Amino acid sequence: MEQLTYTLLAYINNSLEKDINDSIARSFLQHIHNIETFSLDSISETCNVAPSTINRFCKRIGFRNFSNLRNSVILSKKTDPTAGKPQQVLDAYSFNKKFQENVELIDRIPIEQVDQLVARLRNSKRIVILSFEKYQIHTVELQKKLLLLGKFCECSTNLFKQMEALDNLIEDDLVIMISIQGHLLKEELPLIKKLRDSKGHKWLITFSNNLGDQAEFDDVIQCGYPEHSEVSSHTLLRLFDVLEHWMIERS
Q: What is the pTM of this model?
């Protein structure tokens, strides 16, 4: 749901005209918590437009049709059962303590692994980043950093487009998956089968300490502790800063 929310907000924020599509986007946002319960006819009635207009709008923001959009919301909720739930707000001392412990964990990444990571980033023909819900915003920061260093990468906010990207990889490509608690690796999710069948090198960025033996991944980067999820956003941004530093330092 958060992914769709970001997409709709971006559309409204960048819309030059207050036209029918802007109105539909605002209606979707007003009903964002119940969007998966709507049928095409009911959402059309709510937005006071024809069903074909709804489908055209969905295609405009990256979905095949309204059914595809609704299914992406349902599937995204399965990828992270904590999505949309209030997160504990830490006091300043607890926040700094947990964040510092994560930073120290990043600083202890072995130099051999660092060299391998930098080499893979530089040599990959294509880089696809898989991230979901609130971490999409942070992924764009990594995309920007790599772009300024001469490496373009893809990080679609559409779950189905992300899965389609896995079908077209070659051996010299790189997939970076961000799954803080490891929810994305559940066996029942179609994404994990896609990942296993895809070609290319695969990295996992996570807080989980029991995913090191995941056969799907060539490398697992643990950048935080499972019990420190409250500072996951800040930790990811720190890791991306460090990755950028490694790339520049070894250029």
A: 0.81
